Amino acid sequence: MRNIQKIIKDGARKAVARDDVKYVLGWTPGYGFRVSPFFARTAEDTERLIFSPLCANNLTIYLTLQEKLPLPKAAALDKRKIALFVKGCDSRAVIQLIAERGISRDELVILGVPCGGVIDISKLEAKFPQAIKVEAVEEGEKLSLKVDGKSQEIPKEDILLKKCSLCEYPNPLIYDVLLGEEKQKKTKDYQGISTFEEKSPNEKWTYWGDKFARCIRCYACRNICPLCYCDSCILDKLSPQWIRRSVNLSENTVFQLLRTFHLTGRCIGCGECERACPMGIPVGELNRKLEKDVRELFAYEPGIDIEEKSLLSQFKPEDSEDFIL
Amino acid sequence: MSENFEPNIVAFLCNWCSYAGADLAGTARISYPPNVKVIRVMCSGRMNPSFVINALQQGADGVLISGCHPGECHYMEGNYIARRRFTLIKKLMEYIGIEPERFRVSWVSASEGEKFKNVIAEVTEDIRKIGQMKQLKREV
Amino acid sequence: MTAFSLPRNEADDFLVALIEKQSLFAPVEKDSIISYQLVANPGDALWNFSNSTVPPKGILFPQTETLFKFTGSEVSGGIELPPQEKETVIFGIRPCDGRAFKIVDHIFGWDYQDPYYLERRARTVLVGLSCYEPASNCFCTSLNGGPSSKEGLDMLLTDLGDRYYLEVLTDKGGKLLNKNRKLFALALDSDTKEKNSLSKKVESKLKRKVMSCDELQKKMGDLKEHKFWEETSLRCLGCGICTYLCPTCHCFDMQDEVTDGKGRRVRMWDSCMFREYTLHASGENPRPTRVERFKNRLYHKYKYYPDSFKITACVGCGRCTRYCPANLDLIDILTEIGKI
User: What are A67-93's pLDDT values in tens digits?
Assistant: First the structure.
């Protein structure tokens, strides 16, 4: 397993050497436990790439983030492909983007990396608050850490991000090259959500109202979402202004309702929204709730097949309607 | 809830069936609770969840959407497509603690004046029981 | 000014006295998020923490604030300032966040005297709490601050184990002390020595540093068109975390909100990282991409602000680095700038 770093770098070097590739999107280590997204443009750059359980960022967002400005006169559009590394969940975002015609398959070179789950960095930072240089290697169920020269082993289960401990798709579903060995799938269950559904409206609102009240509306959950790529977002519209800019419980709640609803049958569960939230609001839980309903009611799962039609643009005459008068 | 609480209900009715159904209730002099304020939309498929949420923010205690029966949509499948959307937004709203009574959907055809009355009566009574909308209401 | 000491077991009495006569804001932890909240119970206030998630700036410059109300086309009751509220005390401000108030004072008291901010500022006493456990991304010493920097604060408490060392820094702080004088004993010379050596010790724990403010200001003047910006800002997601959690970011937007014929003019925080921030009514956007927006944020902090007010608009609290979901590490970026 130790040579995964070499495999990653080799894969990236081959991709970046292609004439039709603009850059390779990967991860590079930052200060302490942090890992940054990185745009490798040369063979030399690819030496800085790594893959480890600290690589949480879903790089798919960078496929649609670039602003499309009018080209200067006589300039030609750069039609070269983008190569990017994808973990299992990230690959579903790529599939969903292609299915929605957000990007086309031939604009991409997909480098798949099987992933055994990524780590909740804040948990490690709490354990090692002054870490400067960190190496993390996955060894089965353990994470072997080298923090400033000292080696440590930590059971992975304790520090995994929540979405990863229930991951059904550790292996990329779409790729041009697969780098590394395939990982064991886990089974997903919606235990927590089913339990919460049983509560009374009052109990539910006590929980969520408290969470929404502290939202600062930085829109990180929207901006980091690989599937929130509308050119003009309902949150920014002024006329009509569906959501006021003032920060209070009513507007914050509506913001989360609409954000979640706009991802119905599209959210692929990469959990980036939840990871990005500086206020610790479990926004991903709302997405998981709808994911569960979509599965149960419509037997639909987004991000699996690039030919799939979107959930809300199709129907079956026998769809359930037991709540309708 | 205090006894003199009168629910404020916004009903979005589709132009071809439910609006005509409400019209029929009127011409047939069937009386129904006056708590409902009707907004006509061309099809239940026109309904954006923002309409529902925005009404609840602006002081509605409940929202009703009514359209043609499945299979009878003027635009062939508008209500089928809408139905999925309604199911999911309802589930989501319930999940954060908005009472299920606040968001209702019904199918009322142009000939069902009596049913329209029954729907309005039921929705009004249910909301009267649970009281004012508090979760989404805007503070002024 | 004079220094005092407060036995540790009487620290809560001090908070009780503050709660009685003033509105007390103190750091409170909930779901691992630390923010400054109005407290009614001294037990709710945190004394041991590295720094809050959300800086205390929102108490003086609320994220959403009603400027005035109106009905129809009438402004009801003219432009009304917020009602005279009780004197407010913010307790447990880290020295970096305290310095931030001093920095923000410049903009709110500049060519236009902002009555809302200044009124609150005048009736608020800022009680600082020296740092003893800096977080890994703290770099206040590079920005003329330090674990027990006094700027901007009215009082500063330092934890000396069995007692707190209290320095009164302004008249406002003096008045607050006099109200509670009996809780405090005069500090001994040995206390002062102990405090100073503690500050040095804590300072040595800070591992991250950048070049000095003056160098940065000069250097950035030459870098406006450098390709460095484009490459660096590619990673930026354009969210508002870095600006909303920044103790010195002070931009706002104003909008009218009308419901049922009644309305209010509200001002709310705005972020230069948003596309709408510079979007004109015509559709033109002078900062069309994340490159310009990202560059502007850094230029504002390290170049334009010191050009205007002779002080850098950054205190080195490290929040932007800590919370950036794309790990745009400000300290690395500033270090890179130094190398160009």
Answer: 888 888 888 888 999 999 999 999 999
Together in a domain, A196 and A80: no
Instruction: Collect all residues with Cβ–Cβ distance below 8 Å to A199 and sequence separation of at least 6.
Output: A207
CATH of the domain at B27: 3.40.50
A71 in C contact zone (CB under 8 Å): no
Q: In terms of domains, do C180 and C89 share one?
A: yes
DSSP A125-189: HHHSTT--BEEEEEETTEEEEEETTEEEEEEHHHHB-HHHHT-S--S-SS-SEE-S---------
The answer to whether residue B22 sits within a structural domain is: yes
A211 shares its domain with A111? no
Produce one character per residue of C232-245: b if its CB has 16 or more CB atoms within 10 Å, e if not.
Answer: bbbbbbbbbbbbbb
* Cβ–Cβ contact A279 with C under 8 A: yes
For C319, phi then psi, to 5°, come to -65, -40
B11 vs A: CB within 8 A: no
Residues A76 and A42 in one domain: yes
Picking from A96, A84, A86, the residue whose alpha carbon sits closest to that of residue A118 is A86
Say yes or no: C160 and C24 in one domain. yes
Tell me whether B34 touches chain A (CB under 8 Å). Answer: no
Is B3 within a domain? Answer: no
Q: Domain range spanning residue C146?
A: 3-59+68-205
Interior CA angle at A113 toward A230 and C230, to 5°?
50
* Lowest-confidence segment of A302-306, A318-322, B54-58, C128-132 by average pLDDT: A318-322
Cβ within 8 Å, pair B91-A248: no
- Closest Cβ–Cβ partner in B53, B87, B105 for A254: B53
Indicate if C150 and C197 belong to the same structural domain: yes
Distance CA C233, CA C235 (A): 5
Q: Write the CB contacts of C13 (distance below 8 Å, at least 6 apart in sequence).
A: C183
Residues A160 and A199 in one domain: no
- Of A256, A257, A252, A286, the closest CA to residue A269 belongs to A286
Asked if residue A304 lies in contact with residue A281, where contact means CB atoms within 8 angstroms, the answer is no
Q: How many residues does chain B have?
A: 140
Q: Are residues A145 and A209 in the same domain?
A: no
For C129-146, write each residue's pLDDT tens digit. Answer: 999 889 989 999 999 999
Among residues A152, A178, A204, which one ends one of the domains?
A178
The stretches in chain B having pLDDT less than 50 are none
Let me know if residue A322 belongs to a domain.
Answer: no
pLDDT, tens only, C245-300:
999 999 999 999 887 778 889 999 999 999 999 999 898 999 999 999 999 999 99
Whole-angstrom Cα distance, residue A306 to residue A309?
9
Task: Please give the model's pTM, rounded to 2 decimal places.
Answer: 0.93
Cβ contact C195:C165 at 8 Å? yes
Q: How many Å lie between the alpha carbon of C82 and the closest alpha carbon of chain B?
A: 16
List B37's β-bridge partners, or say none. Answer: B10
What's the token pair of residue A316? 């079956």
Whether residue A278 and residue C255 make contact (CB cut-off 8 A), yes or no, is: no
In chain B, the number of structural domains is: 1
Domain membership of residue A86 as a residue range: 4-178
- Looking at the domain assignment, is residue B1 inside a domain? no
Look at residue A1 and tell me whether its pLDDT is greater than 60.
no
Spell out the residues 6+ positions from residue A74 whose beta carbon is closer than 8 angstroms to its own.
none
Residue B64 corresponds to which tokens in the numbers above? 């009703």
Q: Determine the distance in angstroms separating the CA of A5 from the nearest CA of chain C, rounded to an integer.
A: 21
Tally of domains within chain C: 2
Are A167 and A209 part of one and the same domain? Answer: no
Domain count across chain A: 2
C107 Cβ neighbours under 8 A, 6+ residues apart: C250, C309
Task: Please check whether residue B20 lies inside any domain of the structure.
Answer: yes
User: What is the spatial distance between Cα A4 and Cα A50, in angstroms, rounded to a whole number?
Assistant: 8
B106: which chain A residues are within 8 Å (Cβ-Cβ)? 324-325
